[in-house]
């Protein structure tokens, strides 16, 4: 996941814990990369054959943010910030803990006391939702959570994706961007968006279930500005929304710390662990 909170995590929050069980097949047009009647501000179309190959885009991104050698020096991360979005009316406290290679724990605490948690200890995924309680993350949901918990995310593209294809050049916010259609080992497809000029990873487009319609719809994530954290350029948050939905979800990273001496406990909550042990007896 790096610092990228995947759509599967947001969908889990916004639809009360219901993940998409099967991801639909995608065509680039379903993700708005080759929409007809593009905005007048879109750059002049460029033949995909004349654009960089996916590997070149990934490698440029890795170099721009600091390089693999510098990344090897960072083995854990804690993020403190704010969460603004469903199901809460007011901003909530956001804390994310991560540890190499793929341990992950997200906690959102609303001022009134309600708490959302999603965790992955490297093998077992779990979640705690208001009105639902504590439960395991299983099946396709677990596959996607495992994939999303990758500490360096897209940096590990060689092991994450089975297929990659440069789609074309288009407008993404204020940036001229290049899209790469990827198919993950988990089977999920999405479009990764890179800046043509800076080489930075800007966000993603995918399909996920809408909390109100219950149908898969285009879901876009836009990463916020990058800052140097431990010698590696790091995004300081993200804004996510469904196409044509004014209700955006915002993850605002106020403070990002790496390699803290205090170790975080990623183990499954005791009450859930007891249930797992009873099942295996």
The global form is globular
N-to-C CA distance: 34 Å
Please mark out the parts with pLDDT under 50 across 5 or more consecutive residues, or reply none: 14-30, 32-42
**Relative helix content:** 10-25%
- Structural class call reads alpha+beta
Rg, Å, rounded: 19 Å
Q: Can you list the strand order of the major beta sheet?
A: 6-5-4-3-2-1-15-14-11-10-9-8-7
Q: Quote the average pLDDT.
A: 83
User: Care to count the β-strands?
Assistant: 15
The tally of helices reads: 6
Series of H and E elements:
HHHEEEEEEHHEEEEEEEEEH
Main beta sheet strand tally, sense and closure: 13 strands, antiparallel
Bin the strand percentage: 35-45%
What structural keywords apply?
39% strand, 17% helix, alpha+beta, 281 residues, two-stranded antiparallel sheet, 13-stranded antiparallel beta sheet
In short:
With 281 residues, the chain is an alpha+beta fold. The protein is built from six helices and 15 strands. The radius of gyration is 19 Å and the shape is globular.
Task: Give a description of the structure.
The protein is of the alpha+beta class and 281 residues long. The strands form two sheets. The chain has a 13-stranded antiparallel sheet. A two-stranded antiparallel ribbon has the order 12-13. Strand 5 and strand 6 form a beta hairpin.
